[in-house]
Amino acid sequence: MKKKFVFATNNPHKLEEVKAILAGKAEIVSLKDIGCYEELPETADTLEGNALMKARFVNRHYQVDCFADDTGLEVEALGGAPGVHSARYADEEGHDAEANIRKLLRELAGKDNRKARFRTVFALILNGKEHLFEGSVAGEILTTRRGTAGFGYDSVFLPKGYTQTFAEMGENLKNQISHRAIAVNKLCHLLQSI
Predict the structure, then answer these.
(1) Is 70 tagged catalytic?
(2) Which of 60, 84, 181, 182 is spaced 20 to 30 Å from 71 by Cα?
């Protein structure tokens, strides 16, 4: 019997992506499925801290095995920014992907070093124990958008060794090589060993 977990996210894109990665390995339910409509806390200054904060909130209030993630785009020329602030880079109050991309491209204008990496940390709470899993993908930030699939910074991120951005390559390939896929596969490895 497949284990059931709550994925503690309010981002429908992340939910669908993780469901696709874990298809056949675990049953993933959403916050809405358990009646959680609150905005989850994520005020830590690290990806690890935010992932743990969200997972602990759901575990404590709903008594369910769950996992949460936090993801950041870390750009070398910007000292690792936007990092933990990636979702709210352009506006601390909201999640405006287009405004975030515009700000990122402005900040990188005229810079030769466009190296970046996507990094995801998942926090899993299973039977009262906490586990952390990290995945990262190196690449670079393009000067213009390419592709229409994906979400967030996918249209300007070109993963190292590929000729297509995450937004061009399609869901199947992205779900095999992405930072989120790497972290989720580490989580799966733990589940299979239990």
Answers:
(1) yes
(2) 60
